[in-house]
Here is the input.
Amino acid sequence: MNITFRQLRLFSCLAQTLSVTQAARMMHITQPTASMQLKEMNDNIGLPLFEVISKKVHLTSLGKELAKTAREMTSQWEAFEQHVTQMQGLTKGNLKVAVVSTAKYFVPKLLGSFCSKYPEVDISLEILNRDGVIKRLEDNSDDIYVMSKPPLHLDLEDQILMPNPLCMIAYKGHPLTNKKNIRLQDLKDERFILRELGSGTRMSSDIHFKQKKFTPNLLLELGSNEAIKKAVASRLGVAVISIHALDQFDYEREISVLNLQDFPINSQWHLVFLKGKALTPIAKAFYEHVLIESKHLIQSSKP
Here is the structure.
């Protein structure tokens, strides 16, 4: 087989986007050129790597294997390139980070301070729900991942980053706002607005409720912290949310954190990547930077 490294990178882009047009755009080539190179790869291998059904690209099982191989080769090559630039005293390179949606409230701060130290590094930040991050983790699509509930089915390098307290919130002026030592049973008549099933916050909440033998009166399941805060502020119910998702405006205008017994729920942020993965020099620098800088993050928590 005679396949070029550039063709492998093109196929990796195709596997990521499932679109020939978008893959061509990522590689800075025309769509006809991308189609021709992908056809050459198919012909060279002699077995189909993908199919186009109803104008949508579907990878075959062989195509998925090739995509994984292409990602690994690209990652190794980028590590070599960064090693060379490091030896030359340069600080250029690429960094790919994927985080669950709640982490968007603090990860940009860490990225900002990292960019100040390494202004020539190109950074790609993916913000997804937990399932989306796990899929990228399984595919080894990024350098580093931040989440609150790492999957148990993957062999991971797992470093606890910092606490992620989960608090109970209600609208400003709720009758329970100024009460202390509230019990969960005092909320039995309240309507609950919770994160969607599968999210780290929901998993921790469900475990805590089960341990306390409490069944919340579920009104809504929402996939966004902002939507949850707006629903609570609109007096639709109470909710469990990460303290990191609350800002000064929430505290001053819309949200109160209830003083519940056995709250906040103890949770942690984790910094993870696949065990055995060789981090690039830039990824190593970011990993060490995050561990140091996370200790300096000011947590404006009022549970």
Notes: The chain has three domains: 5-65, 91-163+268-296, 166-257.
